[in-house]
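Can anyone check this?
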Amino acid sequence: MATVELTFSALPAHVRTARLVATAIARRTGVEESLLDEVRLAVGEACSRAVEAHRAHCPGEPIRIELSDDSGRFEVTVSDQAPSDEHEHDRPLDLSMLSDSYTSGFGIAVIAGLADDVEVFPSPKGMRIRMSWPASANGRAG
């Protein structure tokens, strides 16, 4: 399993960089070409949500992205440090049970529609969004 970690400050301009890095790594891990736009859009949405939350609550703290390939999956986790006191969970949220205002306000419904598998872990110490797509076992040489 290979993992790439990226941290960036809460500036909207850095969202583009995160999208580009995620798309490049997805391509190398063997994610189908037809899914790369979904990877780019989902990562952009998760990072934009994190930037917005950080700018409101903790602008000096970095946003963290982990990208990995494991067991035939390309996985991206976007973590922020903005407090989320509305929903305190030690386990992922059931996305089908979220209210429309919650999902539309944070773009999670969009992410769930783009990624093959999504888990959201909100806590008072921040939110983690994990999303994944199928990838070939050996990736692509490049």
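Reply from J.R.: I decoded it. The chain has one domain: 2-134.
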